[in-house]
Amino acid sequence: MKSEAAVEHGAGAGKPPMWSIALGWMRRNLFNSWLNSLITLAALWMIYEVAVFLVGWALVNAAYGFDPESCRAAEGLCWPFFADTWKLFMVGRYPFELRYRPLLVVLLIAGVAVPGIFRAVRQSIWYYAVWVAAGVVALFIIRGADFLNISLVNTGLWGGLMLTMILSVAGIGFSFPIGVVLALGRRSQSMPIVRALCVGYIELIRGVPLITILFMASNMLPLFFPPGFDLDKVLAAQIGIILFSAAYMAEVVRGGLQAIPRGQIEAAEAVGLNYWQTMAFIVLPQALRIVIPPLVSTFIALLKDTSLVAIIGLYDLLGIHAQIIANPIWLGQGVEGYVFIGLIYWIICFSISRYASKLEKRFQAAQH
């Protein structure tokens, strides 16, 4: 009778080493033909060249410290640029003595988001109510309120990543339900007037660039208010972004609604569900699950489109960057700023994409 050690040794002896498994995978996937081998070698050479360039630019030939003058002689990345301007990229021209407020908002959002890792919490309707309440509280913290004895901060001083996130998160939060209503209205058979209005709105907004919508919201929307009424520029931009994005959301949701078989609606009607109950409990959950990928693409596009608010005098990430490099101290350091902004956008967009991918897999597992 073999001992346990002998059995384990014998079981382990039949397993190939990791280097053998790796070589086998490379032979099957990277070097299985002369064309694939050539492409693999070319790709490895390009990766090597890019890596050498980045290491030399960002580390070997870079300027360190806090002195802007050291960047003049350096051939690489100017690290003092980030050390001096990162706060402007985060909150723009927000008053220095009140910059603890955005930090409080970040802590508030993190405190609300952490319980969401538990599925039981995410499935509760109260959790989403807490998110709405947290958004309102965050707005009061950033903006201030006289009746709460919190000093007001002019929205013209908002900027950087803070303004980008406010415009994009509020834009997504409000345009999504409006888009769902527009999609349902466009598919309505019993209300032709509502259907015509939804179709007209969607086609009109989708045929106009966002720049035009922002100009109209900033310059023409105040004309509809009484004389002397000063419409906040951030609010005007937010309204324009919401109205613009809602039209695209509507078409994405409509695609999901069309994928639901008519038989499910008829079955819901047969058991006594009315129109709104059928949509809320039968049709919309399935439709929204189907259109997760295009919805994520719309969210990401909305996030990046917020950079267009610079044309109406607001300073998001790109607007702040334009102000920074206009300073003679940092003249000629535009590349560093664009790299930093691109990295921020990539991190946010990649995080959204990965979360959506996990959401899709979870829904697929639930189906099976």
Q: Identify the CATH architecture of the domain at 75-94 and 153-367.
A: Orthogonal Bundle
Radius of gyration: 27 Å
How far from one another are the termini? 45 Å
List low-confidence stretches: 1-12
Q: Could you explain the architecture of this structure?
A:
There is one protein chain. With 368 residues, the chain is mainly α. It has helices spanning 4-13, 18-29, 34-60, 70-73, 79-91, 100-113, 119-122, 125-143, 160-186, 192-206, 210-220, 233-258, 262-270, 275-290, 292-305, 317-326, 334-367. The radius of gyration is 27 Å and the shape is globular. The protein contains 17 helices and no strands.
Explain the layout of strands and helices.
Layout: H1 4-13, H2 18-29, H3 34-60, H4 70-73, H5 79-91, H6 100-113, H7 119-122, H8 125-143, H9 160-186, H10 192-206, H11 210-220, H12 233-258, H13 262-270, H14 275-290, H15 292-305, H16 317-326, H17 334-367
Helix pairs in contact: 5-9, 5-16, 5-17, 6-8, 9-10, 9-12, 9-15, 9-16, 10-12, 11-12, 12-14, 12-15, 13-14, 15-17, 16-17
